[in-house]
Structure prediction request, 326 residues.
Amino acid sequence: MTRSSIVAAALAALAALSPAHAQDKVTKTTNWKAQAEHGGYYQAIAKGIYAKYGLEVTIRQGGPQVDSTLLLLSGRSEFHMGGNSDNAFAFAEKNLPFRAVASMFQKDPQVIMSHPGVGNDTLPALKGKKILIGKAGIVSFYPHLKKLHGFTDEMIVPYTFNIAPFLADKQMSQQGYATSEPFSAMKGGVTPVVHLLADYGYRTYSTTIEVAQKLIDEKPDLVQRFVDASILGWKDYLYGDPKAANEMIKKENPEMTDDFLAFAIDGMKKYGIVDSGDAKELGIGAMTEKRWREQFDDAVGLGIYKPGMDFTKAYTTRFVNKRVGL
Prediction:
């Protein structure tokens, strides 16, 4: 075999391994307005990563007037961003044929933030004190705080997503995202103490990719390409140049600014939101049977689900843990 024929054969083999496909048009819905917490998906569009994987992706941003989960259930989007594991467990409980196929965030960015220098330097120190909590938080993460840390309903002060009451009262704490509300507090003159709930026993996955079982069964290759390209988009957004995605985000959501986006990216890296835990060994998007079981057991312990529910219908690890991008 000649040297030229060896080279030709090698090139042919590489071509066979490359993700070259006819362009498949798909829609990705998010659960809120465009922001840095969606950056990996926008980066995968802006940098041509989806295109390299044969995908033409449209992102449809969520918001207060958009039921993005309904868009998935009705077939108007192929891929949906779940806020945390609760969505997938709800699918399983209701025997709906939808599953989480990846978790871009290993830690939920949910935090409680407090004023510095007033004795609220740890989450357990907040027991018995007032905390601004929104309606969604009361039924999602707050039950975990009650069980794990002895918090009570009497501690709750209704949170209307106005940071002014927190800024005005040094003894007040409030909910938020590690990548968002602390930035607003700093703009208001307070550098808060940030308690990341994931570091205090709140074990949910976050920013999951949810897909119809029908798509998994009929087009597993498409699902795999979307997951792989999204993983590479997240890696490039966090550790490459995020400018391309940020320009798209700012166009979609004018409330976003360069300093806000930079703060959020720094927060995701600082707290290991995307690439901590199992993702260090298995790659971004990692999910394990063990951790899903732990989350389900937590929910059962809170009385949210019955022990006999088949929680394995909530997810599949078929498309992750392949060390993509490592």
